[in-house]
Amino acid sequence: MISYFCKMLFKDIIGQTTAKSNLIKQVRDNRISHAQLICGQEGWGGLALALAYAQYIGCENKKDNDSCGTCSSCIKYNKFAHPDLHFVYPVATNKKVSSAPVSEHYIDEWRAFFSQQKYFTLQQWFECIQIENKQGNISVNESQEIIKKLNLKSYEGNYKIVIIWYPEKMNVAAANKLLKNLEEPSDKTLFLLVAQNTDALLKTILSRTQLIKLHRIAEQDLVQYLTTVYSLSIDQSKKIAQQCDGDMIKLVEMLDQEKAEDSNTDLFKNWMRLCFKFKGGELVNFAEEIASLGREKQKQFLNYAQYMIRQCMLLNYQTNSLLRISAEEADFIKNFAPFIHEKNILQLTEELNTANFHIERNANPKILFMDLSIKVNALLSIKSQ
Ligand SMILES: [Zn+2]
Questions:
Q1: Ligand 1 centre from 10 Cα, in Å?
Q2: Residue 150 burial (C-beta neighbours within 10 Å; 0-12, 13-18, 19+)
Q3: Which of 102, 85, 52, 90 is nearest to 190 (CA)?
Q4: CA 78 to ligand 1 center in whole angstroms
Q5: d(CA 6, ligand 1 centre) in Å
Q6: 34, 141, 234, 251: least CB-packed within 10 angstroms?
Q7: pTM: predicted TM-score of the whole model, two decimal places
Q8: pLDDT, tens digit, for every residue of 137-167?
Q9: Which listed CATH number (3.40.50.300, 1.10.3210.10, 2.60.40.10, 3.30.1330.10) goes with 10-215?
């Protein structure tokens, strides 16, 4: 069996302080509700929270506010392999599973995927299991499987815990089959439903579960996360935290985007330096480097080059207020802008546009970037006066 490692203690989940203390209190007061509905956007961390809560219940050496992380139950949780923990999530058929798909068929994919990230969307999960355009759901077969599992004796007399991700995707037959268990659960059974939207749930499910409402993650929690985990400055962290709307999935997207922009900046600076120097060998190496990036990246890079050239023009016309650039870009543009002027800007933009057009139509990128570099060299040599 492949083993996975995933640390999902309360302290590893960002924000959600109220929900965490509510869940911890239930355990400490020995008043665990047998069916709970954790509700909030995908990027707010409901799924991760459900798992941390399950781990806390099983922990043999609980601390006041968290699991110990080292007892035998915690170790099984860290490996995603506790025999009394069951996951249910929407699935559909794919090339491997041709009929009657249930969560169990995809458990390896689930463990691998979930251990890579605490926050993800339903769409990302569907892409992971390659169900293409099919609608994933939780079927009546699934309910049958859950009931079967709950009838098995639990390991060492612990709680049997079922985490159902996206109960909105349960069809009526599946929900009806489960309802009796939600209503009259067998001893030491716990259902944790993790939903995004209570409106999409059957009323009967709502009425049989206790609601734990999540909220967007507080800005200060995100800033703390970004400064400690990503070593970003307070200013950078605040900027990202304000724009991601308390949502970790958006935050990760924004970080990826910033990273792509950073690498484009280096690449663009290097390219322009080479176009000025115009040394054949180095240009060939550059064209090879770009060719190895793949078409999407090449298109992104050409768009970025256009953006930088426009920024130069804006600077030349002193419309500073329009510049939305990083310190590194500003530094480069200061020296580069004098080479961009009204005698070459239109043609430069047009060449970059044409290149983009040809990349989309599968032109050979190495030849294309060699050719483009020669043109850019000639255009940069044009004097403004
Ligand atoms: Zn423990």
A1: 12
A2: middle
A3: 85
A4: 10
A5: 14
A6: 234
A7: 0.74
A8: 999 999 999 998 888 777 777 899 999 999 9
A9: 3.40.50.300
